[in-house]
Amino acid sequence: MTTSIFHPSLAGQMLLAMPDMPDPRFERSVILLCVHDEGGALGIALDEPMAGIGLHTLLDSFDIEAGEIGDTTVLAGGPMEPRRGFVLHSRDWSAKDSHIVAKDIALTGSLEILNAIAKGEGPRNYLVALGYAGWGSGQLERELAAPGWYVSQADPRQLFDVEPNERWATAFEMEGIDPAMLASSSGHA
């Protein structure tokens, strides 16, 4: 008989990497958990811009005319499937494949949303990412039981207007935590 270690879903909450994060790929990461159930978890990292890829470059790679929209940052959403695209966005726009993440945030992974954004008919607020962070069944729960992650209850929408390189510190500040006061490693006094 197998006992499930699954706890209530953390979808819609953020994982903030602590200074002693053991996995260097997630140093200073801010990950919005989009799916979290018995089968595992999927999140989008909000803190790292893709080098050399803006929204216009991404749209051009799909032969989508950028129209009048600004060239925004495309995020490195995580180490899994780095060529797969996702858009985190306000819920004033949706498609058949849109997944509700939180009260006012959805996740869409189809070209339909990129076409709508390019035409100026997409969601009011959005973040575009390539790749995702993924955990298998029970993996996230095991990681959360060890040092490395802080689960934030703060509203992730507040980070949409913050520059990616400032999101980690801002996310901790939204929790009432001064990131400068975080210890970089555990120890004894």
From TrEMBL:
Output the InterPro entries linked to this UniProt entry: AlgH-like
For this UniProt entry, which residues form the secretion signal? none
The source's domain of life comes to: Bacteria
Got a GO cellular component term for this one?
A: cytosol
Q: What does the sequence similarity comment in the record state about its family?
A: Belongs to the UPF0301 (AlgH) family.
Put simply, this protein is called: UPF0301 protein KK488_12525
Q: Which organism is it from?
A: Sphingobium nicotianae
List the top taxonomic levels of the source: Bacteria, Pseudomonadati, Pseudomonadota, Alphaproteobacteria, Sphingomonadales
